[in-house]
Amino acid sequence: MMRVLLGLSLALTGTLFAAAAIAQADPAADYPNRPVRVIVAVAAGGGIDTATRVLTEHVRQRLGHPFVVENRGGAAGNVGADIVFHSKPDGYTLLGSSLSPITINHLLYKNVNFDPAAFEPVALMSRIPNVLVVRQDFPARTAKELLDYLKANPGKVSYASPGAGTAAFLTTELFMQITGTKMLHVPYKGTAPSLNDLLAGHVDVTIAQVGAVHPLHKGGKMRILATATDRRLEFMNDVPTFSEVGVPGAESETWNAISAPPKTSAAIIAKLNSAFNDALSAPEVKARYRDMYFQAGGGNPAEVRKFVTEDAVRWAKVIRATGLQPE
Questions:
Q1: Of 3.40.30.10, 3.40.50.720, 1.20.140.10, 3.40.190.150, which CATH number belongs to 36-127+253-322?
Q2: pLDDT tens for each residue of 45-80
């Protein structure tokens, strides 16, 4: 009997050692084996939060464990990004964010305690076209008329944005740099309040995600004068692009991504990337995206890193040209 027990004990020990060796050789072998925390670096609601929740539900189905979304907004995404950056790099804490905290916030804020370039890119969730919008009663009826008006009234037209570092702010600054015009920046604490003030006539211009303003444009509440895209949008084919109105090079989009802490294993990143890409191809996700005017992201980790890096370089040049100093 003792020999039998000893043999079972040795067999069990060998099995445990083998399992440990496999886990060490491939950290993604049993990943995930518990819930994954996804820190969304904005308040609940809006494009980033929605994109993250839509996709993580399908990733949960694929990987078999909950992906729990936790909203930690503040400091243009820096609060959530800081939490993830200093988390254990085991794949159980991820970041859902816009471009701001993982590309250019370190140029705008003094007390950033993380290196945005050190995040491990997991997946590009969505890409959302931006458009140029004016209040309904603004004197300029076309983009060309707006440009003429801006040149004749430097510094007298106001533009709204959800804050420095956002796509709306960066694109408007780039627009002014290219056209040699000047508008007064009025920052808000989000897209919704900036659009509310545009509707009320308190500000004149904004650049926003098309999904946020297209219904208002169709309803005659504000006017989209141009799209910050390289081609006309299918559902808005009567609206010209920036290039068509004489502002080539100011194209932009709002994008959202999933990132992991620095030094997360490549095997876990690959497993997550595959699951998110599968979610992006799901018919239900595609339908939700169409309803929100989102375009699917995707790509492997190397492609996502290249995309994020190139966007960071582009917007860093714009920020430096504005002369903004870190706050």
A1: 3.40.190.150
A2: 778 888 999 999 999 999 999 999 999 988 888 999
